[in-house]
Amino acid sequence: MNCLRKQWRREDGAIALMTLAFMLTVGILSITFLWSLALITGAYNALYVANQNAAVAAASAAQRPAGTGPGGVSSGSSQLEYPCNQATTAAFGGMCVASHDSPNSAVARVSPALLAARTVMRESLSDRPFGLNFAAGADRNVAMISRLALNLNPEGIDNIESRADAIELFNMTRSAGEVRRILRQPGAECLMSPILGWGYIPQQYSGDPFGGVFHCWQLEENGITFPKNYNSGVVTRAVADIELLPGCGLAVCRAQIVVSAGASQEQIAAVNNYSQYYSYRP
Amino acid sequence: MKYPRLSALRKRSRNEDGVASLEMLLVLILWLVVVFIFLNMIFMLGSLMLTQASVNRSAQQLAAVGCIPDDLQQNISDRGAIGIKDVTVRAIAPRTTLGRPITVWDRSRYLNADGSLMSSPSNAVNILTCATSGPTTIPSGNFIFVQLEYKQKLPMLEIMSGEMGLPEEILIHRSALVVSQSLSGEG
Predict the structure, then answer these.
(1) Apex CA A71: angle with CA A68 and CA A73, to 5°?
(2) A26 touching chain B per CB within 8 A
């Protein structure tokens, strides 16, 4: 540096210093850009796999093996076991959405599927990869989300996402062919779209004086497709707010990433199954 | 005919060119060091992403069959092309009472302080390879914890290990938690 200071008095030194400053500036900008790119790629990957595992776990936990009902009573069919009749859930026709508002509240214990999804998500992010944190607390920046408003307000707002921890459980109690036939009726929505998600809003909720409303939405926008013959499934979505640069509180330094995953479980009944693991009585 | 003033100018020019060249060399060396460190960081991040995806995929596979597929470690080694070696996959399932809801998972009961899986945790069942145990040994609905352990090689550490006494490789653990999907059998 002494040498550089001496040269500063001369033109050559000034040129060298300017070159140094230029290279440092370009270098810092390049490194910052690449760091942000690597960080958001890593965070997306970590959140994606965590959410995917959460979906599979929720589907596994929600599945009640065929031949068993609550408490081991035979029901004769394989279906999702979910608490559609609980106060915190809403069931519309063949679809059930389960949710809860707080990861710490007693409401969180309503659904085994929710618990499984939350537990797996928390464990997957327990090492805080790329700054992601699902544990409860003020610094938590990952949440499972659900588009509950879509189902509750079919007339207008259709894409409001709830930031409360929630997953969506689907149980298509009607066959896919029957659903398509219903939706081909005049006035039905989603005529041109494959049926990937749908619900029937009963009259008392729809606000329509002439009856209930079929409502559907496309999960393709999130890259989710279920097998054609599925009749039950779980969708999980997770959102994360991350800082691209540590300590930078500006909005330009922050990014939000959202990932989605779907899982379905269609398994044949087995002897000596352990449905008790799924049967939870609050 | 001699031109003393011109000769002095030539000497001065040569000296200044040398100083400028040295300065540029210094800047370039610093720059290369920064780039090298940064590339190593990117290298590490890429490797972590690949292995995290691998362990999650493996965990889902394990949740379906209830045992560790025999070629799982080899598959992960093949996929993890970025400087990983000595891959080991281990999995445990916590012992639960039949009928108990699957709400409890406390990693501190099964992991050592350094994040590695305990060799034989008293309150969990070690999941064996399929060749040893056969499939579906874990009750459906039970948690399964899968841990991937491997050594990560980094070019920077290999260069600096001899001079600064740093280790040549880093021991890394990546883990995933899944819910067993097997519908028969008992662990």
Answers:
(1) 40
(2) no
